[in-house]
Amino acid sequence: MDNCVFCKIVKGEISCKKIFEDNDMLAFLDINPFKPGHVLIIPKEHTLDFQSIDEELLSKIIKRAKILSTHIVDKMNADGYTIIQNNGNVQEVKHYHLHIIPKYIKDSTISLDEAFKKITEE
Ligand code: AMP
């Protein structure tokens, strides 16, 4: 998909703050996070939404979301997290993506770079 921003990220034409990658998917920081540490997981293959995504691939993404959400909450010292996935007219980017949004009782205001450092540090 030539004009798809997430396909461009997959192809390396647009940079991202990568958290995880395998043959099927990519996870990176949302450029405009709802909360610090907000991560998106996308399939590498262009797929529109929850209805069109292959179920086996969806299951792999959900399994990875379980692992990544635990990791993100731990590294960001968050109090919990929310998982959302928009479809239809409320879906801004028309390439399937699952949002993992860490939540904080006391609001956290750290930058994208700081969040990236925390999540990716050993
Ligand atoms: P949605 O409304 O679920 O389609 O949300 C799309 C999300 O993609 C928004 O939270 C955007 O901030 C995020 N987004 C758009 N472009 C980029 C980009 N180049 N890198 C990272 N996140 C992006």
Strand content: 15-25%
| Strand order in the sheet with the most strands | 1-2-3-5-4
Task: Give me the strand/helix succession.
Answer: HEEEHEEH
**Could you state the oligomeric state of the chains shown?**
single chain
Give the helix tally.
3
Q: Give the names of the bound compounds.
A: adenosine monophosphate
Keywords:
alpha+beta; binds adenosine monophosphate
Secondary-structure topology with pairs:
Blueprint: H1 5-11, E1 18-21, E2 25-29, E3 39-43, H2 55-76, E4 80-84, E5 98-103, H3 112-120
Helix pairs in contact: 2-3
The structure holds adenosine monophosphate.
Descriptive overview:
The chain is an alpha+beta fold and 122 residues long. The chain is built from three helices and five strands, in the order αβββαββα. It has a five-stranded antiparallel β-sheet with strand order 1-2-3-5-4. α2 packs across α3 (112-120). The longest helix has 22 residues, at 55-76. It is globular, with a radius of gyration of 14 Å. The termini are far apart. The mean pLDDT is 96. Adenosine monophosphate binds next to loops. The site of adenosine monophosphate has 11 residues, from loops.
What's this model, at a glance?
This protein is α+β, with helices and mostly antiparallel strands and 122 residues long. It contains three helices and five strands; from the N terminus they run αβββαββα.
